[in-house]
Write a structure and sequence with these properties.
- The complex is a heterodimer of chains A (623) and B (368).
- Chain A has 623 residues and is of the alpha+beta class.
- Chain A is elongated.
- Helices cover 69% and strands 4% of the residues of chain B.
- Chain B contains 14 helices and three strands.
- Chain B has one domain.
- Chain B has 368 residues and is mainly alpha-helical.
- The chains are: A alpha+beta (623), B mainly alpha (368).
- Chains A and B meet through helix 1, helix 2, strand 8 and strand 9 of A and helix 10, helix 12 and helix 13 of B.
């Protein structure tokens, strides 16, 4: 082997360089011949294609996944929508064409021109949507005149269809057209201008599963822009289906009873945390949002005092009122400031310092123990028990019971409520806590705020022996053949801070609320099923002491909120319900019957229908 | 210290060729970057490119001052610096278009993979210059060049930038074949390569296979790369013999071409200037490449010869891949056309290469 050292051998180098030169010249010949082939041999053909811009792409929308209830009943699907579009570059005399379209479609000419100018310049060969979802009649007219309307065409695309109008609107949500920021944000890589994405509810929080993937076609068009040849097709990929935990029948019953009221109903399976019902009233029609809601309807929804766009089950924050006495009982028992036999005398009021705190019963409850106190909801008993535990002690038990923090349900903008502590007040108002305020807290008034869903999770835990579940709304995510892609399993989020004995006492008290004649909810007793629950009446407007206004004389928006939280059957619960009726006045009359009707329907109790009818009748009376 | 002979030996002809291509490139870029703008408005891209070209020319001239043989001594340092930048870009780089290629340095962004091409050529020239022999390179002496090539390849694949990674391998392979390997080494490597590919293939995940298949065959992606190639072919073909005229390309003006100012700029040239315009550009490129080879031949120093060849190979592969791609002969990859495509990193890298070529050319009569 001879090495060259630093200086190359001339002959060797020459031979290498010549070899490389030949390779380069050969490669350039290949390139040149390819240019000759494209520009000379096929040149004419390509010139024609380029002059009419004949080869184009068109998108194919992907159908979104379906949404089913727990029994596989269809809640949301897709239906074909006939969308009227125009390819401006093919339109010829645009104004003339638009004038014709305006006449045939009965749309003002200016509106059409505005849509075209809104679509923006610079986007060549992108169709502009003139009108989505046109009627069959209009479709027939357009089709009949299509040769007079250059550039105008009908695109059949899947659009969202909510099968049961106004049912579970807040839970299911709706779609809206994607905006520029979202497109640039990179969160939705498969979404293109003009596509819709989930804007609310499950449609939003499960967007990535539901949306599917766009397809498209390479097409060849004639001089009028009509497709003469489909060159290649990429089929869209349908989105994944969601199986919810909702029970459609129960949901509809709840919504029927909530109609004309303001409030929320949540029902859970206490053994899994499955959300069986989530209703919020007033509601809205999701189908109004398909293809874009008109501004008049939107304005009406936004200005309605009943806040139809808010999901009160997770966003409504209300004082828990007497339902909070379960927390106070638990804290007092666990902290051993009372036991099963401790009694308190209730004369109808409680003097604390120089102030008098009233019991809701003017005549008083006499000597009461804890079971009696729960059953009759005696305020005086809880003033004293709460005072002994103290505000921070109560807060500790409330927080450990899941109040004052989000439940973690997979819906956007869940509110966490408020459980006050002395340090919170210091921070918030820079004022020390007054012991007197603890008395209000003990009966669920004052700063305390909870959501109906939090109370449902809590009461379910009392019923099931202490397990707090993260509420589950979607159980499985499936492919279009029903093949399970992902299973969302029930998830335990914590345990009630209470021992078996304490829970047994609470359960007994709650059962007596319904099942004894002194109980505050005795009127909702079912035939076979035993319900255990607690009523609550939350003050919205404080009446001057001594004065007692009749509810009917109060302005509607100043009336008290009505609560009822319960589970059934008491001995082995399969359903837990939380009902809040805004300005419903009394928990026992406005909220409790709704819960009882739902339980009765779910567990097939013969009295269920009777109660439901009564609720519906009372409604029409108040009209 | 400075030798007057150097100025006398300055390669004015080569500079003329570079300038001609540069001017041609600017004319095409003017047209490509005016798509979608009103007539008469000089686009920002065009102005920026002028600045890059100017900066490139200055860097090129500066690089002729110091004897290129200094690069031989510094090769490991240069290599380590560029490889270091590649590591940094993987950690701190800006993501654009799904890959991490850019490093933001104050007001400019650099693409370390571009600089790495030059560093790799210098290192390989240095490594091979001491081991070239009549019979070819043996296995043992191939180890160092192999390691030098695979490190940047792996780092660039990781970004991922398949085009530049492929370019690296082609440049390294060209240099290796140029210096000649032993016959048995060549045969062994060839067979080993053939057997490793299927093995490697089975290790890939489905989506990775899909990406590579689409890379090799754009028709698999009719809504993306496949569509771009069709539009590019229509643009090129519709130019016919004499073209549609300056600023008259309809495929260009209506934005039917993707990336018409970078990767698909040849399509704009072909549409507006026809086969005649294309022939002029190809001829200039051919002169440029043969000139580069001539510099390699006339250099009396092994390191310089290999270095000159390596840079010429780098220019060649960019031209060949880019032009082949827009005509549907090559995978769709982001390899810019030297001196014509818009892009600062590309302009600077190529100018650095030309500076080194000029440097070698000037010193052809001095040998150690």
């Amino acid at each position: 082997m001879t090495e060259f050292g630093k200086n190359p051998d001339r002959e060797w180098l020459k031979q290498r360089i010549i070899g490389v030169s030949v390779c380069i010249i050969f490669a350039f010949s290949v390139l040149f011949l390819r240019f000759v082939y494209l520009q000379i041999i096929k040149g004419e053909e390509f010139r024609i294609l380029s002059e009419k811009n004949a080869v184009r792409l068109t998108g194919i929308k992907a159908p979104r996944g379906l949404i089913l209830d727990r029994n596989r009943k269809l809640l949301v699907d897709n239906r074909p929508s006939f969308n009227l579009k125009i390819m401006i570059e093919d339109a010829g005399d645009l104004k003339e064409t638009m004038r014709k379209v305006s006449q045939m479609m009965e749309i003002p000419f200016e509106d059409l021109m505005k849509k075209i100018s809104d679509a923006g310049q610079g986007a060549f060969y992108k169709p502009v949507v003139l009108q989505e979802d046109i009627s069959r009649d209009h479709l027939a007219i357009i089709e009949a005149h299509k040769f007079d309307l250059p550039g105008v065409f009908i695109d059949i695309e899947p659009t969202r269809h909510y099968i049961h109008n106004k049912t579970a609107s807040h839970l299911l949500g709706y779609l809206g057209e994607v905006n520029n920021d979202e497109l640039l944000g990179g969160k939705y890589p498969n979404v293109k201008t003009g596509d819709s994405i989930g804007r609310y509810g499950v449609e939003k929080s499960f967007e990535t599963y539901l949306q599917g993937k766009r397809g498209g076609r390479q097409i060849e068009v004639d001089a009028n822009g009509r497709t003469i040849n489909v060159l290649k097709t990429v089929e869209p990929i349908t989105g994944l289906d969601l199986k919810l935990t909702i029970d459609l029948d129960l949901q509809q019953t709840a919504e029927k009873m909530l109609a004309d009221k303001h409030g929320a109903v949540v029902a859970l399976d206490p053994n899994t945390g499955d959300v069986l019902v989530m209703a919020s009233a007033p509601s809205f029609d999701q189908n109004d949002f398909v293809g874009g809601i008109n501004s008049k309807k939107w304005k009406a929804l936004m200005t309605d005092r009943g806040k139809p766009m808010s999901n009160k089950a997770i966003q409504g924050e209300y004082p828990p009122a007497s339902t909070y006495k379960i927390i106070t009982s638990m804290a007092a028992l666990e902290e051993k400031v009372i036991d099963l036999h401790t009694t308190t005398f209730c004369p109808g009021f409680f003097k604390y310092g120089n102030r008098v705190y009233r019991c809701w019963s003017k005549h008083g409850h006499g000597n009461v123990s804890i079971i009696e106190a729960i059953t009759q909801s005696c305020d005086v008993f809880y003033y004293q028990a709460g005072d002994k535990v103290g505000v921070d002690g109560l807060a500790k038990y409330a927080m450990a019971s899941g109040l004052g923090k989000k439940t973690g349900i997979l819906l956007e903008d869940e509110k966490k409520g408020l459980i006050p502590t002395s340090s919170w007040k210091k921070k918030r108002f820079n004022e020390p806590w007054h012991r007197g305020e603890t008395l209000s807290i003990a009966i669920g008034q004052g700063y305390d705020l909870v959501t109906p869903l939090q109370m449902a999770v809590f009461i379910a835990a009392v019923g099931n022996g202490g397990t707090l579940y993260k509420p589950r709304i979607v159980s499985t995510i499936e492919g279009s053949q029903g093949n399970v892609i992902k299973e969302i399993l029930p998830e335990v989020s914590g345990r009630l801070p209470a021992g078996v004995k304490t829970l047994e006492i609470l359960q007994k008290g709650l059962l007596d609320v319904v099942e004894t004649d002194r109980g505050t909810a005795k009127r909702i007793r079912l035939k076979h099923v035993k319900i255990a629950g607690k009523t609550g009446t939350a003050q919205v407007f404080s009446v001057k002491s001594g004065e007692k206004l009749k509810t009917e004389h109060l302005d509607f928006y100043l009336r008290d909120h009505a609560w009822f939280i319960c589970y059934a059957p008491a001995e082995n619960p399969v359903i837990a319900v939380s009902v809040l009726i805004e300005h419903g006045a009394h928990g026992s009359t406005a909220a409790a019957p709704i819960a009882a009707a739902l339980i009765g329907q779910y567990i097939h109790d013969p009295l269920a229908e009777e109660i439901e009818t009564k609720v519906l009748e009372e409604e029409s009376e108040t009209e | 210290m400075f030798d007057r002979r150097l100025i006398e030996n300055f390669d004015w002809g080569f500079l003329m060729v570079i300038s001609s291509i540069g001017c041609l490139g600017l004319v095409v870029l003017y047209s490509a970057s005016s798509a979608g703008h009103e007539a008469g408005i000089v686009s920002v891209l065009f102005k920026k490119q002028m600045v890059w070209m100017g900066a490139g020319l200055i860097i090129m001239m500066i690089l002729t001052i110091v004897d290129y043989r200094e690069l031989d001594k510094l090769h490991l340092f240069i290599y380590a610096l560029c490889a270091g930048l590649l590591v940094v870009v993987l950690i701190f780089g800006q993501i654009s278009g799904g890959s991490r290629r850019w490093l933001a340095l104050g007001f400019i962004r650099i693409q370390p993979s571009e600089l790495m091409k030059i560093a790799l050529i210098i290192s390989l020239a240095s490594a091979y210059s001491t081991s070239v022999s009549q019979t070819g390179i043996n296995f043992r002496k191939l180890i160092k060049p192999a390691v030098l090539s695979l490190i940047p390849f792996a780092l660039i694949v990781d970004q991922p930038d398949l085009g530049t990674a492929m370019l690296m391998i082609l440049i390294a392979g060209s240099i290796t074949l140029f210096v000649k390997v032993e016959r048995k080494v060549f045969v062994t490597l060839f067979i080993a390569g053939l057997s490793v590919v299927p093995l490697f293939w089975f290790m890939l995940k489905d989506y990775q296979k899909d990406r590579i298949l689409t890379f090799l065959n754009p028709d698999r992606d009719p809504l993306g790369a496949g569509y771009h190639i069709i539009q590019s072919k229509i643009a090129i073909g519709s130019g016919m013999l004499t073209g549609k005229g300056f600023l008259k390309g309809t495929q260009n003006a209506l934005s039917f071409l993707p990336e018409q100012h970078t990767d698909f700029i040849v399509s704009v040239l072909a549409e507006e200037w026809g086969l005649l315009g294309v022939s002029v550009l190809l001829t200039f490129y051919l002169i440029l490449l043969l000139w580069g080879l001539n510099i390699a031949y006339n250099c009396r120093n092994m390191f310089g010869s290999i270095l000159a060849f390596g840079i010429t190979a780098m220019i060649f592969w960019q031209i060949f891949i880019n032009t082949g791609m827009v005509m549907g002969l090559m995978p769709v990859v982001g390899v810019p056309l030297p001196l014509v495509s818009y892009g600062g990193s590309s302009v600077i890298t190529n100018m650095v290469g030309f500076g080194i070529l000029l440097n070698i050319s000037m010193r052809k009569f001095s040998s150690h």
